[in-house]
Amino acid sequence: MSGCSWLDATTRExxxxxxxxxxxxxxxxxxxxxxxxxxxxxGGKTAGDPFALVAHYRSLGIRSLYIADxxxxxxxxxxxxxxxxxxxxxxxxxxxxxxIGLPERDTVxxxxxxxxxxxxxxxxxxxxxxxNATSLxxxxxxxxxxxxxxxxxxxxxxxxxxxxxxxxWDSGGDWDSERDWLEFADQLGIDRVVALDTATVGTSRGPxxxxxxxxxxxxxxxxKLYSGGGIRDASDVKLLQQAGCDRCLVATALLKR
Length: 257
Fold this sequence. Notes:
Largest sheet: 8 strands, parallel, barrel
Radius of gyration: 17 Å
Distance between the termini: 12 Å
Helix content: 25-40%
Strand content: 15-25%
Structural class: alpha/beta
Order of helices and strands: HEEEHEHHEHEEEHEHEHEH
Number of strands: 11
Mean pLDDT: 89
């Protein structure tokens, strides 16, 4: 097993390795500046090869993946063929989370059908792409809620969810607060949540989202909670675990030899 001396057996079980896809290539996400993301090169392979990146993660013994389709998130143009090619060989993995933002249902019909046949694949609905919490119903009937994940998006600690966003747990305004989103997801039977602050992603400065994770865990103790952003090593993973996270999203720290 190669590289990443900080990745011991216990920590490895808590890691969800990240693949960010933009225009068909795997890119290195840094600080949420998506227009500036650059292709990732692994071990002399062609820069931006997402299959080489997944193979690298698997060589480290990682058992879970998070795949973000930036074309779908930013442009509403999902990379269906690429996503299916990345997902299909890995039925043995514990779980694969696929973040497609919130595209029109017709554009992802074939992907949802494919996901429905795979018990280890889950689709993330991202709050940053939605108008309000009821957007979680977008794929109703096409996919069971047990295979949906609520993506709670933040920017420098501020919740991003809908036409208006606010950093308050209970906004008291006309828009949906963090709690509104989480409560509606709970009512629908969605039991997985990814909380991510894009400002810290890829920075290797350590996670800044521990307090938010603690708040989510305190109010929703039974949810399976994922988070990350800025993770450098096992101590950062432990910090988020202590804040209530079940799994941690990591990319940059897994690329270092």
